[in-house]
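Dock beta-D-fucopyranose; give full complex structure.
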Amino acid sequence: MTQAAPSANGALSFPPGFAWGAATAAYQIEGAANTDGRGLSIWDTFSRVPGKIRRGDTGDIACDSYHRYPEDVALMASLGLQCYRFSISWPRVQPGGSGPVNQKGLDFYKALLDELAGKAIDAAVTLYHWDLPQELQDNGGWGVRSTAERYADYALLLAEHLGDRVSRWITLNEPQVSADHGYRTGVHAPGVTDAAAAAAATHHLLLAHGLGAQALRSVRPSTPVGITLDMHPVRLAAGTQPDQVEAARLATDAELNALFLEPVLHGRYPEHVRAALLPPSDVIADGDLDTIRQPLDFLGVNYYSPVFLRAGDPDDLRRDEEPARCELPGVVEYWPADLERTPMGWLVDPEGLYDLLVQVSDAAPGLPLYITENGCAAEDYVDPYGAVNDVERVSYLHQHLDAAARAIKAGVNLAGYYVWSLLDNFEWGWGYQRRFGIVFVDFETQRRIPKASAQFYADVVRANAVPPYPDAVG
Ligand code: FCB
């Protein structure tokens, strides 16, 4: 592997062939919810439940990318992007989640893929980014095994109809969030709050990954297949003695990361995880863990922020502390005061990305890694000159790309980076209030305005290098 190296002007360069892209997801950008035979997804239903989404926003129109995709692809081309990670809306191509396909839905994705090919932009296609067909939810959703089997059928149909146009498949986006937010805390669709259902969903999502990978490869054996996990490095607050919190560190890492990574890599559930999170043995059929452990061509890592631990008393919390999710005594989660937070409340910690990449690379030596999402929300606005000067995002991207380049230098096999997101979009429970795009979207007019971060990112892509810090932000 070629290593990232500092250039004469101090820029940290990336290896030749490093893939630069942007990411989106169907429900967050497409809109056209009732167009051309699309079926209902759990997010259509959930976003109509009063109180679930800020201001009652829905993805009905979103960025209207279903109609405006040529403009969005042209935007990516103008920024010099080489690849685009987007997701397929399952209910758009198979409205009920099983049975007949919707030809018009497939035609939309064919046209999008052709548009990308026309601009020499590779497609990294996520099969499932949280928008389960409502009919499958009505039959139990991820709480039941049959959903994993329907997902395998869906994977097969995508490979058959779209496979000739796809460069890379990503089976699932962040199954940890699907299981936790969708079934345990209920803050995401389908809004279930049932720990047992969440534990079962964990297994069925993983099984779907394994069955789906097999289905994709049965049609297109040479197209790379991977999965995207949201990963959270578990870090210790300054001054914390590692042995004080070691059990908590292992348990938190197991819950957030290893619960999905270990089955996928090694066909086993991790040791240190709370019992309530582990799928019960009656949902794990013989052979399931072997099915889940399909060879991976790459691993997608989404990184936003870490979790910090320190010794403390969960029953007597100090400022910026919370009870530790692992529920062990003598330890709390903590937001260090010296780290910035984004408007999401998420800590800005580029060293967390560096540590995470090294950790994952140690866990899966040699496996190509992609950062399939990284970025931040910011309070973006169009200034009187018509520009969006998102200095916070430029700084965030700069620091994280710098960390990624250093991780490559330290031997991590990082093959590409996708910024989240190309466009401001429907940010789940936050609706349109949280802007993550490098391109501003005026949701009244659908006008797109590339932000300062888009220009910064285009410069990075062109140079295949991160500029020295003051140059980047000043
Ligand atoms: C990730 C999701 C993505 C987006 C970002 C901010 O967890 O995969 O859709 O919402 O967070």
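Observed: The mean pLDDT is 96.
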